[in-house]
UniProtKB/TrEMBL annotation:
Keywords: Hydrolase. It comes from SAR86 cluster bacterium. Coiled coil: none annotated. The keyword Hydrolase applies. It holds the Pfam family Beta-lactamase. The lineage of its organism: Bacteria, Pseudomonadati, Pseudomonadota, Gammaproteobacteria, SAR86 cluster. It comes from the Bacteria. This is Serine hydrolase.
Length: 451
């Protein structure tokens, strides 16, 4: 999630939206936390991976009329002026049973939202980066227990924040152990984002310009190596720039640019033809407008938002938040993950590697919870539901994440389903589309696999 210094508006929206993403994680699985005006219920083995195709909900144990309530709810948000446009998509047993767009891609131009619209997916880039790194893990390029500095000398001998002196200078201490790649991939390595708190370490992130996009991945990592860790590795979960470090790690281990690795090893094999770090000129007409809210709570276009960053090849290929994608592309990626690493006969990862990614990877000695979310743990670049009762969700082992501009997805291995939702919306009036869509999707399941 990186921005240029040219737009204070976008920078403020980014900070607000990262906080919003934190809230989304906390409330991600709370079916009662939405205001959509429709009503509730809702493990068989996964079907063999097959080409994604449209199918009737009834063919996979779901009810069409109940499933239509998702579209009704999203249209309601548009009619209330809370959202400009939305795409929702669901698949069960490798069959797409719901793919609907409502509202507008560009409200001012009255350009309708279409299923092929392009979205800034921000932090939904993170699971893709995690898969890229695990491809190299399978090839024996590293172990999860390896110190990050073994491959990235820019992060060698990092110090850890301990306190400040009377003049406000940071006092550091050595690491209790070297940050590992497992910790890097589970946000427990001691890094930060520099925008969630006013700590001395966060201030150093801002001073160093780590949220600016003018650096290469190498330059970014070099800057990061000059700043103390905020926490001792393995002691605290904190959302961080660690996935951008992972992108640089992919470059170093693969011996090629991060973007070219993603294209060759994930996007091209999976047919993700619209996912990239930039929007080519011929696709700009499909690029959804970003919206926020004015002081009266009315939708307004994101004036000054740096879309130019997405229209040229970026210097900084952000694995943490730099990708643009479509609902269909992200569904293909997510279905591959649900299938244990394979889609349409193309294997990206082995089933046991995918399983490793959505197992709890946080230290058992670590206190606290993931962004305050009850019943939730963290795997390798995915949040994971460990206790659906505590999390107010449906299935143990569901894994998910979201993006700063409101995009969201989850994967449910128990019910063998994937859901992808796409909006481009910042601001405090943003409705809890994740909670609403989750409640409405599960109440459409009449043949549950998990009971």
């Amino acid at each position: 999630m990186y921005i240029t210094q040219e737009s204070n508006t976008s920078k403020n929206w980014l900070r607000t939206s990262l906080m919003g993403l934190s809230f989304a994680v906390i409330t991600a699985c709370n079916p009662a936390a939405d205001t959509a005006s429709v009503m509730a219920p809702a493990a068989a083995p996964s079907a063999p991976a097959a080409a994604l195709e449209m199918s009737s909900p009834e063919s996979v144990g779901m009810d069409s009329a109940r499933l239509d309530r998702i579209t009704q709810a999203m249209q309601g948000y548009v009619d209330e002026g809370l959202l400009a446009g939305v795409i929702t998509m669901a698949a069960r047993d490798n069959k797409i049973v719901h793919f609907e767009s409502v509202g507008y891609r560009d409200l001012e131009a009255q350009a309708p939202m279409t299923n092929d619209a392009l979205f800034r997916i921000y932090s939904m880039s993170k699971p893709i980066t995690g898969v890229a790194l695990m491809i190299l893990y399978e090839e024996g390029k590293f172990r999860l227990a390896d110190p990050v500095e073994k491959y990235l000398p820019e992060l060698k001998d990092l110090q850890v924040y301990a306190s400040t002196d009377d003049s406000g200078n940071i006092i550091t201490e050595p690491q209790s152990h070297k940050m590992t790649i497992r910790e890097l991939m589970s946000h427990t390595g001691g890094l930060s984002y520099g925008i969630f708190a006013a700590s001395p370490v966060d201030a150093k992130y801002v001073e160093a310009g780590l949220l600016d996009s003018g650096d290469t991945l190498e330059e970014f990592t070099t800057k990061l190596g000059q700043i103390p860790l905020k926490h001792q590795p393995g002691t605290t979960w904190e959302y961080s720039v660690s996935v951008d470090v992972q992108g640089y790690l992919v470059e170093k281990l693969a011996g090629q640019s991060f973007g070219s690795f993603l294209e060759e090893r994930i996007f091209d094999p999976l047919g993700m033809t619209d996912t990239d770090f930039r929007v080519p000129e011929e696709k700009v007409s499909r690029f959804a407008q970003v919206y926020g809210y004015d002081d009266e709570g009315t939708l307004e276009a994101g004036e000054g938002f740096p879309d130019a960053n997405f229209l040229v090849d970026p210097v900084f290929e952000s694995g943490g938040g730099g990708l643009v994608s479509t609902a269909m592309d992200y569904m293909r990626f997510s279905q591959m993950v649900l299938n244990g690493g394979e889609l349409d006969g193309v294997r990206i990862l082995a089933p046991l590697t995918v399983d490793l990614m959505h197992r709890d990877q946080t230290p058992k000695t670590m206190e606290g919870s993931i962004l305050g979310a009850r019943g939730t743990s963290f795997g390798l670049d995915f949040a994971v539901i460990e206790d659906p009762v505590e999390a107010e969700s449906y299935s143990t082992g569901e894994f998910y994440w979201g993006g700063a501009a409101g995009t969201w997805f989850w994967i449910d291995p128990v019910e063998n389903l994937v859901f992808v939702g796409m909006i481009q919306q910042f601001g405090s009036k943003l409705p809890n589309v994740r909670a609403a869509s989750k409640r409405l999707l599960y109440q459409s399941i009449l043949d549950p696999y998990g009971i």
